[in-house]
Amino acid sequence: MLELRKTHPFQPSKWANFLRLLVKGCLIFLLALIGWIGFIFLQQKSHSEPDQVYIMGTVGSYIFLFLFLVLLFYFIFSFFALRQQAERLKRKFYIFVVFYLITSPLVLLSFDNYLLVTTKGIQYNSFFSVEGEPLKEWKQIEKLVLDYEVKQIPTQTSDDLRLRYILYFRDGSTVDLNHLNSPLYKRSEFITIHRVLLKYKVPIQIIRPLPNTFKDQSSFIYKLFHHQYQPSS
């Protein structure tokens, strides 16, 4: 006679493993977040100036740093979990060494990838700027060029355009402040920089007017192209 065994829909061991992984993942995320905030704080304290108007790193650098910290804490937790498994621990350590040797120099480059605006001038260090760019005074700026790329036709609102906001310096160098890895994130930050440029009478060149179909007169881009912003005090 066959013996019927009662089956359970939930297996405690699998749920325990899932909860353990969930707690581990949340802890890694939290530690990475704390380290990420600390990195931004140290970056701004290290590069700040008494008369600064604006200082901030770039999107790409901050995303890379957060991913680096997540992987770093993942390896640390893995070392702890494998402390009694010598062979697996050794292989994991070799992978960590390769990871660290490749990414740690990029972390240093991320630390120096920022935009600084002061009452004296502007300094922008790109990601691969090893030595760092000097602060350039306002009189060294030849002009600000305003242009745009059309993303959608008909072009009616600012969402249908991508602003080109480029500084040209007298030494021939340029800085695009609205590229994909821009250190400016919000409209208010662009307005702050723009009002400072107006204050120091930086010439503004508009490559072409906005399309006739553009009707959003309250938008940031419309006000830029129609000179509706006032210099900062």
Description of the structure:
The chain has a 4-stranded antiparallel beta sheet, with helices on both faces. It has a 4-stranded mixed beta sheet with strand order 7-6-5-8. It contains 5 helices and 8 strands; from the N terminus they run αβααββββββαβα. By secondary structure, the protein is of the alpha+beta class. The chain crosses the membrane at residues 21-42, 62-81, 93-111. Keywords: Membrane, Transmembrane, Transmembrane helix.
State the gist of this model.
Helix 1 packs across helix 2 (59-81).
Strand content: 15-25%
Ranges with pLDDT <50 over ≥5 residues?
Answer: none
Q: Supply the number of structural domains.
A: 2
SS content category: alpha+beta
The run of helices and strands is: HEHHEEEEEEHEH
Give the overall average pLDDT.
Answer: 85
Oligomer: single chain
Arrangement of strands in the largest sheet: 1-2-3-4
Q: What fraction, in percent, of the residue positions are helical? A: 40-55%
Terminal CA distance reads 95 Å
Q: What is the count of helical runs? A: 5
Q: Biggest sheet, in brief?
A: 4 strands, antiparallel
Keywords: Membrane, Transmembrane, Transmembrane helix
Transmembrane segments: 21-42, 62-81, 93-111
